[in-house]
Amino acid sequence: MKASDDPVAELLRGSKTIAMVGLSANPARPSNEVAAYLQRVGYRIIAVNPKEKEVLGEKAYARLEDVPEKVDIVDIFRRAEEVGAVVESAIGIGAKVVWMQLGIEDGVAAEKARGRGLAVIEDACLLVEDRKRRR
Asked: How far apart are CA 7 and CA 133, in angstroms?
């Protein structure tokens, strides 16, 4: 299979900065495990969580709009009913990709993001998908 046959691999290769909405500083939480892995393999991880001040040695931000740098992927670790608002913010900050973690889907928000030119991944774990493509 050629790389061009794998759009997820292309998205990952073209991305450096991942804003993780709902990222927890608690190492027992899945979001923290995923973020720690992504940070280890070279991605810049930005926590977006109003309850956190710092996660994995990086400053956390209350909202996507507060992040002072360009974000490639917005990775959503929030309940499905919160996805629409996060997608609106992702569009607003000019992100390239909206990624909904395992078990998270929102067809309306996904279509809105696609309509504004963003790539959308639903119901998939960034750690799992990245690890598969590093073998």
From this structure: 11
94 phi-psi bin (left φ>0, alpha ψ -120 to 50, beta other): left
**Which amino acid is it at 116?**
R
Segment 65-91 mean pLDDT: 97
Q: What are phi and psi of 99, to 5 degrees?
A: -120, 120
User: How many of the other CB atoms lie within 10 Å of CB of 78?
Assistant: 17
* pLDDT interval class at 134 (50, 70, 90): confident
CB 55 within 8 A of CB 29: no
Determine the 3-state secondary structure of 96 from DSSP: coil
Model confidence, pTM: 0.94
Q: Is 92 exposed, middle or buried (0-12, 13-18, 19+ CB in 10 A)?
A: exposed
Domains and CATH numbers, the chain: 3-132 (3.40.50.720)
Transcribe 12-39 into DSSP letters: HHT--EEEEET--S-TTSHHHHHHHHHH
